[in-house]
Amino acid sequence: MQLQKRQPQTISSEKSYTRQDWQKGYESQPREFDYWIEDIEGEIPPELQGTFFKNGPGLLDINGAPIHHPFDGDGMISKIAINQGRAHFSNRFVQTEGYIAEKKAGKILYRGVFGTQKPGGWFANIFNFNIKNIANTNVIYWGNKLLALWEAAQPHRLDPYTLETLGLDSIQGTLNPGDAFAAHPRIDPHSQADGGAPCLVNFAVKPGPSSTITIYELNPTGEVVRQHSHIIPGFAFLHDMAITPNYCIFFQNPVRFNPLPFLLGWRSPGQCIDFNPHEKTQIILIPRDGKSAVKIIETEPCFVFHHANAWEENGEIFIDSICYESFPSVDPDGDFREVDFDTVPAGQLWRFQVNLETQTVQHQVIETRCCEFPSLHPEQVGRPYRYLYIGTAHAAQGNAPLQAVLKLDFQTQTQQIWSAAPRGFTGEPVFVPRPGGTREDDGWLLVLMYDATHHRSDVVILDAEDLTQGPTARLHLKHHVPYGLHGSFTSEWFGPEA
User: Fold this and answer.
1) pTM reported for the whole predicted model
2) Would you give the end-to-end CA distance of the chain in angstroms?
3) What's the alpha-carbon Rg for the chain, to the nearest Å?
């Protein structure tokens, strides 16, 4: 199914961006701010009330020594509190043990998962397995707690008003030291096991020759109401999952992990992963009741970071995912800021159709445009849905930085696009439903984007019903926020008194 396209506004240059503009969004932001946003184009919708949290790497260097990959950067939480047509911004670094130690030392002390090494070459890194919890991937408010998430360790709890770090959180004693709580929880809006109440579903994975996946389900007070673990064969590189009312769904990418270069100090763990295009991707279906048998079904080889959504229909499971033809890694001797987009794979939106009876899979490419960071109405998570919003490239062909937001309508097979090109760079759109709204696209999209013209970031508010009208409001910050990863919105107001 290929959607009809509305062409974005015309950009005269051959590319919709310059590398120099894009690179500036990866400058560190060591400062912490706290102010009311006064420079606003348009008007903040009066019904839009609550707090938009965003997480991402705030430091791309340690005292001038560059981080090799942005995923290795220390987590910085940005908070935009919105109330009665006004907005307040603040940001703080998560005070992890590693962040505090390196700030005091003024140098890199830890190896990173995706390429950062301690200075001193292999001799300084050999048999050094001390990787810091960087708390930089996601931030959620659940069970009256604000949690900064990183998939390989415990979350850090923050004060939602001040963003002060309160320490590691054990999820009411469920997590032991060293346990993980992934950075991609899903919220089931109406859990069957809980009488239709909402439920947060998350996971942890311990990879190895055989890998263990643990599922956690938390009620609205933050209590773990279900927990079960499953051993699956092979090394599992799992960043995200999708859910349906009955299943947690994982894609076991066809990769191999050779730990020797990591042990000897030559490479980081992420650089020891090799994609094998001759092996199948495995779809892992873990029943949420924790009792039924796990199903593993093979499909076409692809690499998946993020899933958009999944649902069950007539004995089949449908899964929409962002797929790459191979693992997009950074060369050990390369610089991620100098990446040649024309030579690395672009993410595309694929739809997988899994027949549970025959245990077979069919797939189709829904959107060929380079895209990442899908978002949808929270009521549709795990259920059939009509609209998907996603960060995308400005151009319809080729790989490029994200500069636009795309709305896909699966019912009419049409799409809308809003582009910030040539000098704007987007990321993940977060869908916020309009209070009392009844339509699936009745709400707003919040996007924290980088404006290279002014070397600052904007909070862009888009009407989710019609992206072609452009932003309802653009909130100009006084500074830039480095490109972030994931964020969330809560209707709770965590700003200062007006």
Assistant:
1) 0.95
2) 49
3) 21
Helices (H) and strands (E) in the chain, counts: 4, 35
Please state, in angstroms and rounded to a whole number, the distance separating the CA atoms of residues 69 and 26.
10
Is 300 buried (19+), middle (13-18) or exposed (0-12) by CB count in 10 A?
middle
Phi and psi angles of residue 269, each rounded to the nearest 5 degrees, phi first: -60, -40
29, 481 contact by CB (below 8 A): yes
Measured CA to CA, the distance from residue 248 to residue 210 in angstroms comes to 19
Distance CA 459, CA 53 (A): 11
Task: Determine the Cα–Cα distance for residues 27 and 58; give it in Å rounded to an integer.
Answer: 9
The torsion angles phi and psi of 272, rounded to 5 degrees, stand at: -100, 5
Can you name the residues that pair with 473 across neighbouring β-strands? 42, 461
Nearest Cα to Cα of residue 140 among 203, 82, 54, 223: 54
Distance of alpha carbon 482 from alpha carbon 485, whole angstroms:
10
What is the DSSP secondary-structure string of 292-323?
SPPEEEEE---EEEEEEEEEEETTEEEEEEEE
pLDDT tens string 98-146: 999 999 999 999 999 988 998 999 888 998 888 899 999 999 999 999 9
**Closest-CA residue to 309 (of 374, 361, 360, 369):** 374
Per-residue pLDDT tens over the stretch 444-462: 999 999 999 999 999 999 9
Query: Distance between CA 35 and CA 310 in Å, rounded?
Result: 40
Query: What pLDDT sits at residue 329?
Result: 67
Q: Rounded to an integer, what distance in angstroms lies between the CA atom of residue 444 and that of residue 45? A: 9
Q: Which residues contact 20 (CB under 8 A, 6 or more apart)?
A: none
Cis link prior to 422 (omega < 30° from 0)? Answer: yes
DSSP state at residue 265: T
351-367 burial code (b ≥16 CB/10 A, e <16): bbebeeeeeebebeebb
3-state secondary structure (DSSP) of residue 72: helix
* Tens-digit pLDDT profile for residues 49-104: 999 999 999 999 999 999 999 999 999 999 999 999 999 999 999 999 999 999 99
* Tokens representing residue 137 in the block: 């991937």
Distance CA 350, CA 379 (A): 22
Q: What strand order describes the sheet that includes 199-206? A: 186-188, 199-206, 210-218, 224-233
Mean pLDDT of the chain: 94
Query: Is residue 101 within a helix (H) or strand (E), and if so which, with residue range?
Result: helix 97-105
Element (H, E) at 122: helix 121-125
CB 357 within 8 A of CB 337: no
- Would you tell me how many other CB atoms lie within 10 Å of the CB of residue 159? 12
Gap between the Cα atoms of 368 and 337, Å rounded: 24
Q: Which residues, 6+ apart, have CB-to-CB distance to 454 below 8 Å?
A: 476
What stretches of 310-370 show up as alpha helix (H) in DSSP? none
Residues paired with 111 in a beta bridge: 131
